[in-house]
Amino acid sequence: MEEVAVVENKQVILKQYVDGIPKETDMDVKLGDKIKLKAPKGSSCILVKNLYLSCDPYMRGRMRDFHGSYLPPFVPGQRIEGFGLAKVIDSDDANYKPDDIISGITGWEEYSLLRSSNEQLQLRKVQLDDDDDIPLSYHLGLLGMAGFTAYAGFNEICSPKKAESVFVSAASGAVGQLVGQLAKLHGCYVVGSAGTKQKVDLLKSKLGFDEAFNYKEEADLDAALKRYFPEGINIYFDNVGGTMLDAVLLNMKVRGRIALCGMVSLQSLSSSSSSSQGINNLYNAIPKRVRLEGFLQSDYLHVFPQFLEHVKGYYKEKKIVYVEDMCEGLEQAPGALVGLFSGKNIGKQIVQVAEE
Amino acid sequence: MEEVAVVENKQVILKQYVDGIPKETDMDVKLGDKIKLKAPKGSSCILVKNLYLSCDPYMRGRMRDFHGSYLPPFVPGQRIEGFGLAKVIDSDDANYKPDDIISGITGWEEYSLLRSSNEQLQLRKVQLDDDDDIPLSYHLGLLGMAGFTAYAGFNEICSPKKAESVFVSAASGAVGQLVGQLAKLHGCYVVGSAGTKQKVDLLKSKLGFDEAFNYKEEADLDAALKRYFPEGINIYFDNVGGTMLDAVLLNMKVRGRIALCGMVSLQSLSSSSSSSQGINNLYNAIPKRVRLEGFLQSDYLHVFPQFLEHVKGYYKEKKIVYVEDMCEGLEQAPGALVGLFSGKNIGKQIVQVAEE
Fold this sequence. Notes:
2 copies of one chain form a homodimer. The first copy, chain A, is built from 8 helices and 15 strands. Chain A folds into 2 domains: about 5-140 and about 325-350, Medium-chain alcohol dehydrogenases, catalytic domain (Quinone Oxidoreductase, Chain A, domain 1, Alpha-Beta Complex); about 145-300, Rossmann fold, CATH 3.40.50. The two termini of chain A are about 30 Å apart. In chain A, helix 8 (about 335-340) links the parallel strand 14 and strand 15 (about 350). By secondary structure, chain A is an alpha/beta fold. The radius of gyration of chain A is 21 Å and the shape is globular. In chain A, strands 3, 4, 5, 6, 7, 14 and 15 form a 7-stranded mixed sheet that branches. In chain A, strands 10-9-8-11-12-13 form a 6-stranded parallel sheet, with helices on both faces. Chain A has a two-stranded antiparallel sheet with strand order 1-2. In chain A, helix 2 (about 145-155) crosses helix 3 (about 175-185). The interface of A and B includes residues 241, 281, 286 and 294 of A. Chains A, B: GO terms for molecular function: oxidoreductase activity, acting on the CH-CH group of donors, NAD or NADP as acceptor. Chains A, B: Keywords: Oxidoreductase.
């Protein structure tokens, strides 16, 4: 009989549903049940060792006790999940074999048993070129969900044209930094906002934005936008919602487009909250014929291969760069996730769980 | 030498800029300068006798001291203007001759001197078929700017499909009543909201809506919408903005469309107003992939001939009806215009200035 390793499996557990902004204490890192490093026969599953986990703002939505969304909430008392990169240890799925690297939704734990036929997990094998000088972790950011969100949102929702003016909020973040660089490659004028001087410098020096500003230093966001866009904004890629979106609505050009990607500043609020200031300037969308459109990257998976080809190509030609914020060890994961909502991270936040 | 009639020209004057909702006392009806009933030689103008004037909510925007919109404000102390139907008395424009009926932007006065080369006036000759049993005034509503707003907005912005669910606010108004009927002709399920029992009855009995409700009797608009749309809304044709739009955002189906046509409830507020509750539920547009789009009918004038053909056809085949609220005499015009904002009118509000 075959010898099967059994290990203790460290996990990040959601202690209880979260109301508002998540705190580190909403999660626990502890040893879960022991796990056999084996994909059971007949299960069609793969047993993977998790290497990198992606911290994404949308995960906050799954920490709430709200069952009407496009993704179910996490289960209190159980390990949470999110996009990750993992190595196949054992496979009962003909499409995967040991040592394959996979990306997709995996558990926030050392080892996970996953079923690739579950489409919601978006599992796919990561194709590593022989001459590939792209860091593996980039398959979570630049070449993963965040990068694809930027690519799909900018190309499919914003309909960019050369020489148009583009504004990106949370511009140094996982999605924003690629939106800005794609816009520059399209020949657009690009301005980004961020929340620290260091991020603003990064936008202008390393990420090639034409201009950038620290929104926390602007008492009047409308005036700030008028300074950088005296003739108005053609495209706004919105990662934050709230007062920034409201100010942008006062500065859109005729037939401008707004891609609603994420609303970090609002999404922690319950929908019936009356404490929120709300959006007051939506009326401006009428005389300016502005289109606002919410989107999810998962609706555009048919262009994922094209995305990989294009963005890998840009990277290899040194036309784009990507900034990651990597922390090490599953113990750091709750803090890294929570840090997203105070802007602690610089660039794409990733947790390294194990050595490659 | 030719004898030219000179008459006193009664006019509706804007007394001062309006802040908030206009009142009758913001306008004056009085005799203006005497006017020669003659289009001066070399002027390329036409001299018209105004027959019908259209009262439209957008006019409120022109009563404000705000110069950044797509239309300039009215000039305090001078006569206001709006869409109307008029008869040509004299013409120095080869395209028009006496007794022609024209539609377009004309003065709120008995006689106006207009230049058709001014594209903003949208002047056109009204084609009256020999067998035409359509009331002339319908060329201001059903076959005019209001009807065209409904047609262009519903077809070009809402992308309707058979069996989709459609919600229309201010549904018995000049625009809403045609949106609902067009949606029914598309095979949609259609619900309208209005502000009185009489209007709700009209929607269900005469205008063919599947359902209708009085929003003033609903303490919880979200609950009201869930009652009529248990599976959600595909298309919302928004004529009001505000709390209704906010409630609709909680009830949109995946890939729903919202046409932002007018925001009667909001547009009187200055853009920086903090007294407004604002829109709190825009975040829902992301998971539901909802598109919101502002539009102006004037962007779609290339489909105006098609609109006239289609809607005239529907009317002659008795597939649609149209409800007008007609008052008589220029003296009634300020009250009729102001009444729009309290919902006094039932159907398209028109002022008859003179007999045909």
